[in-house]
Amino acid sequence: MDAQEAWSKIAGNAILKRAIEISLLGEHMVTVTGHPDNGFMYAREILGGRVYSLPECPCGNFGDLTNTCNCRTREIQRYRNDMYQLEVMTKAEIFVETQTPRWSDYERSWESFGQVMRRIKLANYPESMKICSNGQVLIDKAIQAFGLRMRQVHNVLSVAHTISALACAESIAVEHVAEAIQYQRPWGNF
Length: 190
Prior knowledge:
Number of domains: 2
Strand order of the largest sheet: 2-1-3
């Protein structure tokens, strides 16, 4: 299976496709949470060793809209503590939570891999970019609200830089920072 075919098989999960696009340009490591059957294998075909699967619980169904998690709270907490160590070792910069697609996701017309690759080729990816003052304020608020660690702040800046490049922007805007921040919360509120 080539990257074009793998891309076409990812039904729904637009956030996973966006993470793949960002990773292709910026060579960021991606960790996919949620059930591994919801796009991870296809992402692996496209990104190779830059993507890892990290189910949210031992059974892989926690948070899934269509499947029931049978894990106990303590099992999930213990599992997540162990998986956090793996996350640290993988040095992932982007976390994506996948969902089981619905039938309408299979019927919908999605952007082709060729369109994504054209956007990547057109991207302006300078060595460094300045971040706007509102972006700086947003990062500070995220640090306070989510307890982002130093490495996560670096990840936000690195991923926001790539998002800005994809937008052919001259600086990192607040919306690029906001999108990058959403990729730093691997398990939301548990």
